[in-house]
Structure to design on (226 residues):
């Protein structure tokens, strides 16, 4: 083997080693505790059974669980996750996936039917990812904002505290809600702090696929702005 071949092989090996290191780092990365002291998880049915007690041992200070979606859907793990969280003594809240194509009243009915009213829970979260572009019948911008405001008011009345808007980047680009509805924001962007809302976030999904020693599946790791 010539020296050129040896050098080329060494470069390839180094590149592969670097790629593996970057992949492993990304899978296990969380923001600095010095910058973000309070960190937690977002889980739902896709994550399977979750040992919340074990998650507290690896640094989770809170948990959000997916609860409802649209006007009828209920997360398949909701009841089990609620029981597990009660046993784990971990602060928690719930998330509703809002659909701008469906009436707010019916979505609120779904939410209040399955989510218990509990003053000890964290603020409710409304996930805004589906845009009106996906609606079979056209919905105006004014209609999106009006219906969403109605839904927010009904959720807040049920829970007794202000909601947090989990604002997806696509939703914000099509419906610039962040500038029109004054609620705390939860933004998503892997590894880099998001700025697409035009104002600061309260929560940030910093790593959408965090692997740990206590989970069989990766979890969405969330941090709180101090």
């Amino acid at each position: 083997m010539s020296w050129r071949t040896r050098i080329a092989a060494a470069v390839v090996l180094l590149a592969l080693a670097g790629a593996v290191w970057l992949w492993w780092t990304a899978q296990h990365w969380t923001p600095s505790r010095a910058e973000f002291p309070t960190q937690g998880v977002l889980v739902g049915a896709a994550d399977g059974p979750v040992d919340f007690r074990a998650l507290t041992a690896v640094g989770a200070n809170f948990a959000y669980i997916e609860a409802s979606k649209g006007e009828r859907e209920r997360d398949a793990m909701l009841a089990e996750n609620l029981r597990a969280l009660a046993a784990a003594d971990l602060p928690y809240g719930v998330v509703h996936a809002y659909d701008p194509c469906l009436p707010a009243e019916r979505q609120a009915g779904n939410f209040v039917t399955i989510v218990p009213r509990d003053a000890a829970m964290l603020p409710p979260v409304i996930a805004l990812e589906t845009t009106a572009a996906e609606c079979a019948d056209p919905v105006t911008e004014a209609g999106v904002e009006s219906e969403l405001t109605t839904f927010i008011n009904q959720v807040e009345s049920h829970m007794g505290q202000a909601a947090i808007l989990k604002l997806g980047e696509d939703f914000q680009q099509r419906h610039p809600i962040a500038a029109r509805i004054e609620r705390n924001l939860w933004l998503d962007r892997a590894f880099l702090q998001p700025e697409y809302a035009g104002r600061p976030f309260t929560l940030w999904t910093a790593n959408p696929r965090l692997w740990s020693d206590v989970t069989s599946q990766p979890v969405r790791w969330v941090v709180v702005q101090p």
